[in-house]
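Reopening this ticket.

The earlier resolution said the output was attached, but the attachment link was broken on my side. Pasting everything inline this time so it's all in one place.
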Amino acid sequence: MSITCVLFWLLFIGHRLILYSASNGKCGPLSGFYAYFDNYIEVVFTAICTPIVMVILAYLLMRSVRDVIQRRIVPDNNGPLVNTAQRSVLQKIDSRLTLMLILQSFIAIITYTPYAAELIYTNVTQYWPKSPLQIAIEKVIVELIHLVSYTFFATSFYISLISNSGFRRQFIKFFRKRRHDDPTIHINTVFHTNTMTNISNRNKIIIHLEL
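Inline output:
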């Protein structure tokens, strides 16, 4: 399976190793028909297919998980009965998974839809006459859209942090443990304790001498 994936992506984007060239400090496709072909391939497979595949897989996964949970809650004649506590746990798992998949699909849509629109607009208007101000504004918008599209790859952590209470507990526990085991904190505590002890002893000696 892994070899098939490698061969697929090599055939799919391997042409860029040959038909891309550096121009004005940027690496891009050769001008002409190949530039249009490469841009629309990018639009279809990267910008449009990604959110569609995410939504379809999320729907199929939610339906599969709910079928499994439903069979656990309402077992067959030969299956064991599920008590109220187990049913509550299964329903919580279902709700958390549903929230996580919905958030992931929503983020995929809002990050890749502007990217697809930007690629289509750039491909259609690349030979239109534009003023320097319009070119500058479009460059700023393009960079902003690219930045938003990159955030999709960093949202899995935050989605897990929002939708999974167990993950949040482990995350907080990890940092509390790191803080508790930090040798700097321990050294500072010992130093502060020793300092206060020395000051207290010195005050006792001074009081004793005065008496």
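Reporter confirms the inline version is readable. Strands lie at 20-23, 26-29. The mean pLDDT is 76.
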